[in-house]
Amino acid sequence: MAQVKKLFLIDAFALIYRSYFAFSKNPRINSKGLETSAILGFVNSLVEVIKKEKPTHIAVVFDTPAATVRHEDYSEYKANREAMPEGIAVALPYIDQLLEAFNISKLYADGYEADDVIGTLAKKAEKQGFVTYMMTPDKDFAQLVSENILLYRPGNKWKPTETWGVKEVLEKFEIKNISQVIDFLGMMGDAVDNIPGLPGVGEKTAKKLLAEYGNMEGLLENVHLIKGKLGEKIQAHKEQGILSKRLATILLDAPVEINESALAIKKFDAEKVQALFEELEFRNLARRLLGKSEMPEKVEKSENNVNQKKSFNDGQMDLFAIGVDDTLPATSYKTIDDLSTNYTLVENSELRATLLDKLLQQHSVCFDTETTGLNPLKADIIGMSFSYQKNEAYYVHISEGQEQAIVNEFKSFFEHPEIQKIAQNLKYDYKVLAKYGVYIKAPVFDTMLAHYLLEPDQRHNMQVLAQNYLNYSPISIETLIGKKGKNQLSMRQTPLQQLYPYACEDADITFQLKEIFHKKLEGSKSYEVFKKIEMPLIPILSAMEMEGIKIDIEALADFSKKLEQRVIELNDNVQKLAGTSFNLASPKQLGKILFEHMKLVDKPKKTKTGQYSTSEDTLLRLKGKHTIIDDILEFRQLQKLKSTYVDALPEMADAYTHRIHTTYQQAVAATGRLSSVNPNLQNIPIRSEKGREVRKAFVPKNENFTLLAADYSQIELRLMAHLSQDEGMLSAFQNGEDIHAATAAKVYQIELEKVSREQRSYAKMVNFGIIYGISAFGLAQRLGIKRGEAKEIIDNYFMQYPKVKDYMDLCVENAREKGFVETIMGRKRMLKDINSRNAVIRGYAERNAINAPIQGSAADIIKMAMINVDEAFKEYDFKSKLLLQVHDELVFDVHKSEVKILKNIIKDNMENALLLSVPLKVEVGQGPNWLEAH
Predict the structure, then answer these.
(1) Quick one: 330 exposed, middle or buried, by C-beta within 10 A (0-12, 13-18, 19+)?
(2) I need a labelling partner for 325 at 20 to 30 A (CA). Which of 469, 658, 668, 792 fits?
(3) pLDDT per residue over 64-85, tens digit each?
(4) Full set of structural domains in the chain with CATH
């Protein structure tokens, strides 16, 4: 019987990233300072799958830096991806060499993602009699599964490896045929790849719609049958749905072929492998693969080495014979079953009273709340856990209908002014308890924010922290309520005997983490930031989120209609100017119209896939060639404005109050800036006239109030003046000069009053660009001038402001030496890539070294201003409230009787938040909406 041809196609970067983060607790760094985590993890995984699955053929498939057709289709595709970590960037050349030494094919194709290459090969291999396993955790590959193409999802400590065939895919997606996977992915979208999907359509809804309408096209053809808001949203985003499906579709036309001999499993080159292992200092792997406990200078053939599982054959060894290195950390985490814990269920009033007495006697207590949902403003509390000693915790069960009464019993503890309350993501628990009239009083300690200050670029969720610092793997919530889907339970449905150990463990683990983080922070400047800025900010942000801001639903609805009418007009105009009808939302069709039909340029730019480029940059370069370009740009701008803001915001507002309740994230931006999600109110447009109309829809709570906006003026430039101590820049700010005009006068060496509008505009671009480390090339692109002219402007700038250049150089120099930079207040930004051998990655770190102290100090200042303003509000018991923080701006809902006094109080507290060498200036405005107040 002929051997089955078994092909493994490995998604390289999925495996490399997985391997890199597996060692996040203890990164592997050799004696030369090289981080080897990703390399070691990759080799371990590769060896394991070969040994376990015994493929006859194998290839490792990579992405390339080249743009793909998806980027051309949708400029925002994967735009949210962070830069590659240095630990992965330095690993790639070694992984490349190791694959060569292992005689394993490395495949890629410019203009195509690894997904497309794998998909193309899998389909071609199927026709040639292979059974193909696509090794990746990415569920998108389920669209390719067939009888002879399987999805191989590598497992970990918590879940085993899974192999999905047709049956498994149909069951997991709850669909009737494989072709519906693409429709499912297109409807849902993908936050990781920044695929928008259809608004309001999650996993459950997507399954329901597919069951009823079959596919995306069937849904969109029958959208008029869907009643309510969902139907309206889908109707308004039909083109977005088609685009999302296209983006989610794996291409099957990559320029790759099946070369059986090249893909066949071969013996590896022992000498090359040993040389690499010596350099990388992989002693355990050398022993397991090469049968050597030490690393000799040369590989010697030996029949007497009893540790050697296979003898060498002309310097080659069999990959099937090797063992797997046992250093992967995922296998060593302790669990609740390994510990002797004392977790107590508290079910009645007598036990609660006893517990409360104990809590009131403690110096510090960790607590956690369990609720029925993730939105603290809507969820009900079902229990509270407490811990004040390692491996000991209590869970207070709260029956339905008893929430207010039982929470009140613990009010004296939560509002005690001397007992330290510890929590992980305290702001969530603060809002949960505030709903019942209980307000947590300081002192407090949030382990999530403590770790954020210690390691701002790392992840801060409890599971990761427990693994990294306690070598412990907590109970997964999925073991209680199941996986997402129609069969998932709510926390209230979870059996109490399962729920209370889970809840107690949360409090216990967080208590232990607090002890570790407190020791790491204590005595450092970061601890002052933690105590004086981040902790006092928690109740302020909580209050802002609970208050929310009102939007004018009717105004947005009217604006949406106007935009829709204008979009239709623009579409009609474009069709007329083109002289033919086509789908304007299709980049491919648009490209053919502009460059084949209208022939706007002789040599149009093409993407790697051969499609004409119609990106925004391409279209902007065509402005002036034909009036059709202006209409196309406006069409795209208005479509995005309508779908992202005008139609989306009303859906996020409370149905009764019309208030939007955003969530501020304190532990996301490494610089210390707050970020806003659900919705992101920090990205509300302001530059275009129609974009500003969105801000006009943000209004006061009622006719007795007005909106007041207070905005720092040029705070980052003022901080540059303070930090650099450049006399020219200090003088300009101290004398109240227009800093951009003053810069133009210096750079162009002319008198201040002779500065033209264009020269001031150029100087403004330089001023702000310098802070972000702009290059001559970057400045030339922004200003539309030659690179030589841009270089001359930058050189003149540094001649006139020499200490700015000195400060920037010093920032980079200090960062190289210390590995981090600091804000004025002492917030650290770690820069692990500052000494990278990769010039691109090192350059990114150098720009952060310059910008982070400035941007971070600005973030610290506005946070301190918020704390000062809040104290003033409490002292005078004002009716007015702080609603929003948007970068350097604070927005208030102010009672009209308090406008005059509050303008002065707000301005004074913001301008005196921190004493600098130059004055901080705040501009305050008021109006019936956010636009007019700004």
Answers:
(1) middle
(2) 469
(3) 877 666 645 555 555 545 567 8
(4) 5-169+251-260 (3.40.50.1010), 336-522 (3.30.420.10), 553-638 (1.20.1060.10)
